[in-house]
Amino acid sequence: MDQASSLRKIVDSKALKIKKQEHSRNASGTDIKGAPRVIAFTSGKGGVGKTNIVGNLALAFAKLGKKVMVLDADLGLANIDIIFDVHPKYNIGHVLSGEKELSEVMVDGPGGIKIIPAGSGFENLAHLTEGQKLSLLSEFEEFNDSLDIFLIDTGAGISSNVIYFNIAADERVVIATSEPTSITDAYAMIKVMSKRYGTKHFKLLVNMVQDADEAKSVYLNLTQASERFLNGVMIEYIGYLPNDPFVKQAVRNRGTFMDLYPDAISSKKLNEIAAAILQAPRRSDSDGNIKFFLKRFIDYRA
Ligand SMILES: Nc1ncnc2c1ncn2[C@@H]1O[C@H](COP(=O)(O)OP(=O)(O)OP(=O)(O)O)[C@@H](O)[C@H]1O
Ligand SMILES: [Mg+2]
Questions:
Q1: Buried residues in 145-161 as b, exposed as e (16+ CB within 10 A)
Q2: Which ligand is nearest to the CA of 156?
Q3: Cα(156) to centroid of ligand 2, in Å?
Q4: Ligand 1 environment, Cβ below 6 A
């Protein structure tokens, strides 16, 4: 048996074990702690608000009593650290190189949010060795039972990494603005994901619009194109954020608008979106579990 298949076997047996545990806890009628929902945020086009939305949504979930972890998988300039005003010493690159454990790299944000900072070594996941994947698996495994939500800021573009995170997550939130380039890039992302990888479910959050009508027209634009050209793709509209000066103001103050301006319309909208995401039933074909997420990660070949 080669190293990859023995790794897969280990993951499969662990996944089975956790399923059995969940089942028995279910059967005993006690309040089960479900496995975390793994949600990736993507856009195609850069600069449409992913990092701001992930950071603030993390806080919205935390305020709803959820235990949240954020993985900064965006190697661009404006990182999640700025929004949370944290200054991490280490990053995921140190975990991959074996210098640090995940718990040493993780930093605490507001509301008990755990942040895993982006770092080198993460640029091309397809090039990770099986050993690195295995050690990541066991590092993440520790947190599987203590988390409710695992959010991933995937960065711009449709590189193999961005695609990987979207495939491996249970839910994908596509963020688009009403700019034609943003709509085109969001569509390109959905097209690649559906045609090449068979991913059919997407949630859409429209950012920086004047009003609900403008957001709905972005949604219609995307759904009409998808219905015409992409077989079986389902795009679920989950809401919009207005073009809001408080969002920029919060970034300038190195904070979250949820925290600094709780009465701003963006904060209210994002609270509604967070509540709606939590209320939506988990899809039956998704296991919502970091272990399954990593299993897909191991199976993925760019
Ligand atoms: N709803 C909004 N209203 C006003 N400004 C916004 C809004 N959302 C985001 N912005 C601003 O847009 C800019 C880009 O936001 P952000 O960095 O979150 O985008 P991104 O998609 O993560 O970018 P990248 O692709 O470079 O990672 C920031 O200056 C941010 O303050
Ligand atoms: Mg970003």
A1: eebbbbbbbbbbbbeeb
A2: 1
A3: 7
A4: 43, 46-52, 74, 76, 78, 155-156, 207-208, 241, 243-244, 247-248, 251, 266
> What pTM, to 2 d.p., does this model score?
0.86
Q: Ligand 1 pocket check: which of 43, 52, 208 to mutate, most ligand atoms within 8 Å of Cβ?
A: 52
pLDDT, tens digit (0-9, with 9 covering 90-100), for 7-50: 556 555 554 444 444 443 333 333 334 678 889 999 999 999 99
Q: What is the pLDDT of residues 142-192, one digit of tens each?
A: 888 889 999 999 888 888 778 878 888 889 999 999 999 999 999 999 999
Site to probe by mutation for ligand 1, drawn from 218, 248, 270 as the one with most ligand atoms within 8 Å of Cβ, is 248
**Radius of gyration from C-alpha coordinates of the chain:** 19
- Cα-flanking dihedrals φ and ψ of residue 88, to 5°? -70, 140
212 Cα: distance to centroid of ligand 1 (angstroms): 19
The domain 38-299: what is its CATH number? 3.40.50.300
Tokens found for residue 207: 């950012």
Give domain limits for the chain.
38-299
Distances (CA, A) of 80 to 51, 73, 158, 177: 6, 10, 20, 20
